[in-house]
């Protein structure tokens, strides 16, 4: 007698497929959220034009939903360039932190209590960022 080929039991296969899908999705979530938060808080490329002179910080902090933050820096470079700091474009300085090899154009917004407004400072400097899974997730002021 010839043996009939047996099909895999779907009752056993389906839970394994679902488990694998859940693990794959869950493993990417923290990096995605942190990378998106980093982008929202610190990346502005190309630099957004301000409605009025000296109004860039007020506009950006409101637009990004982070008004009230005492200090925040926006990096005016493509995300790909910033990501390189987490690999070949940066130097390891401590656990998870890397300093860029090249200068980046940045705008630092500091809240001044005396004038009840943000003060803008523009620089070209090295940046220090925290990296996780070769993605920028933290800007070190």
UniProtKB/TrEMBL annotation:
Record's subcellular location: Secreted
GO molecular function: kinase activity; nucleic acid binding; RNA nuclease activity
PROSITE patterns: PROKAR_LIPOPROTEIN
Lineage top rank: taxon: Eukaryota
Main localization, broad class: secreted
Positions in coiled-coil regions: none
GO term, biological process aspect, one: defense response to Gram-positive bacterium
GO cellular component: extracellular region
Extent of the signal sequence: 1-28
SMART domains to which the protein is assigned, alphabetical: RNAse_Pc
Pfam families in UniProt: RnaseA
Ribonuclease A-domain domain residues: 27-140
Keywords: Disulfide bond, Kinase, Pyruvate, Secreted, Signal, Transferase
Family stated for the protein in its record: Belongs to the pancreatic ribonuclease family.
Protein name in the entry: Pyruvate dehydrogenase kinase, isozyme 2
Source organism of the structure: Platysternon megacephalum
């Amino acid at each position: 007698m010839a043996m009939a080929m047996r099909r895999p039991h779907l009752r056993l296969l389906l839970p394994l497929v679902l488990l694998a899908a859940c693990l794959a999705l869950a493993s990417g979530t923290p990096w995605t959220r942190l990378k998106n938060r980093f982008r929202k808080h610190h990346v502005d490329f190309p630099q957004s034009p301000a409605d009025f002179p000296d109004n860039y910080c007020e506009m950006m902090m409101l637009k990004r939903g982070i008004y009230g933050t005492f200090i925040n820096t926006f990096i005016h470079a493509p995300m790909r360039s910033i990501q390189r700091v987490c690999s070949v474009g940066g130097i390891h300085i401590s656990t998870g932190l890397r300093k860029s090899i090249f200068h980046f154009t940045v705008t630092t917004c500091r809240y001044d209590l005396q004038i009840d407004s943000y003060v803008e400072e523009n620089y070209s400097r090295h940046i220090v960022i925290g990296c996780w899974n070769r993605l920028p997730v933290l800007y070190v002021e």
